[in-house]
Amino acid sequence: MPDSSQVPIYSLAKQWLSQDRDPKTRAQIEALVDAKDEAKLEALLRHPVEFGTAGLRARMEAGYARLNQVTIITASQGLSVFVEREVKDARSRGVVVGHDHRHNSEVFAQLTVQAFLDRGFKVYFYPGLSFTPQVPFAVKHLHAACGVMITASHNPKDDNGYKVYWENGTQIKPPLDVGIARCIQEHSVPRNWDITRIAEDSNVVDISDSMLDAYIEATKVHVLDIEQNRCSNLQYVYTPMHGVGAPFAKRVIEAFGLPAYVPVTGQMRPDPDFSTVAFPNPEEKGALDMAKATADHHGIGLVVANDPDADRFAAAEKQSDGSWLAFTGDQLGTMFAASVLETTRHQGIPDAKVAMVNSTVSSRMLEAMAIREGFHYADALTGFKWMANELVSMEQQGFHIGFGYEEAIGFMIGNPVLDKDGISALAVFLQLAASLHAKGKRVSDYLEEQYSRYGFFVSSNLYFICPDPAKSTRIFTRIRFGTSNNNNNNNSATGDEEQDGIERTEFARPHCNDVLRYPRTIGGFPVSYIRDLTAGFEMRDVDKQSGPLTLSETQFVPSFPVSASSQMITFETRNGGRLTMRTSGTEPKLKYYLEVRSANNDRKAAARDLQLMVQAIADELVQAKKNGL
């Protein structure tokens, strides 16, 4: 839509009502107009929902700032124009569209299909429920021009999303998002609401069965010994967390020859209200309680789960003392990496030709594995749009795509799906568990073997709730400059710096009005490395510098993309610590990811150091009490 910043709010409401044909959302705006609720109208209408590298994700309500039939149609109109312009033979190659079980997901998917049909595209459609990895799999398998999945993953029930994959089967990354957003802006008047003829359109191809069969066949490359799997008496409990995963999990488990799961009966059917969990994310505290209770009832010691759109995977195991160990994303990632390496060796692929990546906020244990085993490793920015594209680049250089993961329980095994995939992860994990079970071992025993081989890594990944973006900016500015005001162009300490008592190392750039002043220590441990993707600074051995250092214009520029619009700083300390702090792009959170490594497996020392650094983050860096966090 045109710039609305100066348009009177009731004119915006009138414009909305002239475009919207959904009685439910029309009634919402009409009621607000009648009530003269200008504040709510402003919130819903003034600032359009922004299209980014995650596509669209927002609450389902009326208005340009929310997800609804108007914003879905206009997003699809703009995307179809952009894809036709940027991808060769886009209309004949077609687009893949799928949807999950959330409220409105089906109609949002149908409106997306119709918008592409109106542009002359062939559409490969999953008319029934699909799990998110099916869309990137089909894009790659069918050589389609792009893909759209209607899902909000594990967000609350009132949210939905519009996730876009590019022609190579990966999530879009900059600058594609900017170009798509511009096209959406240029085609912001919804044109076609008629979805009644989709099933009869010759340009629509139902790929539900064919692509599931192809996906299962592609996933079977990870089967190590199907006869051993068939002989397993492994018992485990499975929950799809009220999502779509159950039938797909059943198919892949059968394809691997593994025993069937014991279901969490109250969570097996798709439920858009997620009625038994406060937040449908297996990572959240209490989310696996029903699964654990089911396991306890049956005397079973292993629980596995997918999130609602089945692109993430979680697991927990009962220990000898009767407690449950919920594996972290990093612990699972470590075990998957070791398991994948076993598979690639079984396939005769040299270790030096295997490529693995993880996000920069994930554990450095994967890097330690690579150093010892000799496979090719890289870290990437947070998000599979970065990791998958990094792996694709490695594949083009002659490497075999082995594995990629992020600490938020997202795992990409091999190259059939160039995104996180909870279903293939489920099968590979259960195969590992079955193999260990046959030897009288637990999964946690396998994890201990990795610690013994590569060193002990302990982490704390937490967040502070900070609904005020300005406050988050002030916190990061103070960490970066020693003051909450970054318009400081002299080398003298400011009031804030004097009060917090933090020793700082100074770095000055010529022709700049600021002097970077990062903390010298965190928790008493010297800072040895800094990477600031907001200010555009990266340096190793910073603790070996004496006195203020003047930087050249091109010196110490990070290899990762720099963005002044988001906050992200990484520190490494001489005790084997690594801390990354960032703001969330989708939630009012200031997140941190902290890890301490003990190369000699001194767990007590690592745990002690971790706690000292956790305290320093809260007290010194974030000043949680002072900032009311």
UniProtKB/TrEMBL annotation:
GO CC terms, sorted: cytoplasm; nucleus
Keyword Repeat among record annotations: no
GO MF entries: magnesium ion binding; phosphopentomutase activity
Leader peptide range in chain numbering: none
Subcellular location: Cytoplasm
Record bears the keyword Phosphoprotein: yes
Keywords: Carbohydrate metabolism, Cytoplasm, Glucose metabolism, Isomerase, Magnesium, Metal-binding, Phosphoprotein
Domain of life: Eukaryota
Gene3D superfamilies: Alpha-D-Glucose-1,6-Bisphosphate, subunit A, domain 3
One annotated GO biological process: glucose metabolic process
Cofactor field: Mg(2+)
Principal localisation: cytoplasm
InterPro entries xrefs: A-D-PHexomutase_a/b/a-I, A-D-PHexomutase_a/b/a-I/II/III, A-D-PHexomutase_a/b/a-II, A-D-PHexomutase_a/b/a-III, A-D-PHexomutase_C_sf, A-D-PHexomutase_CS, Alpha-D-phosphohexomutase_SF
Pfam families: PGM_PMM_I, PGM_PMM_II, PGM_PMM_III
Domain Alpha-D-phosphohexomutase alpha/beta/alpha: 50-186, 214-318, 329-454
Similarity comment: Belongs to the phosphohexose mutase family.
Protein name: Phosphoglucomutase
Originating organism: Coemansia asiatica
